Amino acid sequence: MSHSANSPFFADDINRRSVDRTRSADRTRSTDRTTSVDRANRHSRTSFSIKEEFAGPREDLIPPGAETANEEKDSKTLMFVFLGMVVIGLGNKVFNKLMTIPMHNYPNFLNLLTSFVYIPVCFAYIIPMARYGYIPEEQFQVPKRTFAIMGALDAMAGLLQIFGSTYLPGPLIILLLQAAIPVSMVISKYLVNASYNMYQYIGALIVAAGIMIVLVPSITGGGSVLWAIMLIVSTVPMALSSVYKEIALGETELDAVYLNGWVAVFQFAFSLVLAVPSALASDPPVAIPDLPANMWGGMKCYFGYNSVTCDPDDSNCDADKCFPQAPEFVNIYLVFNQFYNLLIILILKYGSANLLYLALTLMVPLGNVAFTLPFVPENGPLRPTDIVGLVVICFGLGCYRFANDLVKKYWNKEAQYGELAADEYAEDHKSTLISHLIPPAIQELDREDEDDEIQLVR
Known about the structure:
Elements (H helix, E strand, L loop, with lengths): L2 E2 L6 H9 L1 H10 L2 H9 L3 E2 L28 H24 L8 H10 L1 H14 L12 H24 L2 H7 L3 H13 L5 H22 L5 H9 L1 H15 L6 H24 L11 H12 L22 H26 L2 H18 L13 H54 L2 H18 L1
Antiparallel strand pairs: 1-2
Helix pairs in contact: 3-15, 4-15, 4-16, 5-7, 5-13, 5-14, 6-13, 7-11, 7-12, 7-13, 8-16, 9-12, 10-17, 16-17
């Protein structure tokens, strides 16, 4: 599943949003740090943690002075949060793939489970907070159809992602999902006229080139090109969900857990509906009349009981190997994912968005390396195209997320050094000019007068 995050809809709101964009930007500049964290938290709950894949600074959402707003932070706390973010985020990515290995025959059940688990978790918070007034009354006025649209988009993205994760190798999953960056840029530019700097456009193009490189083996027959394309396509509804949330909610602040809980409800409901046609896309396909039995088999596999057995001569059959990996890997992933989303909130609270982007960028190469370790199930060496694509994609991510800030800092230093050099040059030039225009004898008299004045003062 994908995320659950922030904003409602209205087609007429799109037009109003484009007209009032300048006014909204002014309101954004006047908000405090808490508002910035709340807006980021709208993107935080993602059962496949995909929303953050295209995280990067948007020129139209950066208030003046944001670079210096968080200079004084608790460095020790920030260090632990950052390291935790990298470690937990890496585990989240790795177990996103590992949980599909023992649940190979049950991607539909896994999709429903990882959607449903957020409903009791979120509402365990929402119900008492609403009862005691910690969630403002106006938040309950947001139409539920708003959450339904978010849930529908997230359900489509999540379904494609979990099927792609089931049938593709781990390193390829991590790299292909970086397609969310160019996809989200195109969608946000078209729908909300988002502003990006030159280096972000260059970075997005580099990321796209890296994705084409890692796709070469699949295109030439060395892998499943269909599921690779489906995984890339999954970033479209995911990006639409993100942009839609921005359009619909605008500057309205919602409690992140309240928002995510209701989106999870509708995401689960739409996933139930989508389970019917998606059953035919399984490998092997599950006939519609057999879908209930397949779901029951998925439930048993989650608790460690096998349902599917195969004849030794049947090469097209994948026998269940549920115990002990299915309950272990699925539950570990769910725990990692809960902590991962909590750490996104903490790193924004104690650090900055740039620190979050750095952690997300580091996870890409580390995740690829993790799948080469001998103790990781279905490990294997990276293919040459994976290595080249990884380098290209990481370079593109760095350019997309950090290049503009680095260039600004460099030119600011150059400007400062330039001003100092200009002042020194002016003093030297003044002294030289005086020495040429004023006769030496008069200069000597001036110096003697200055010495006399000093003696008188003494």
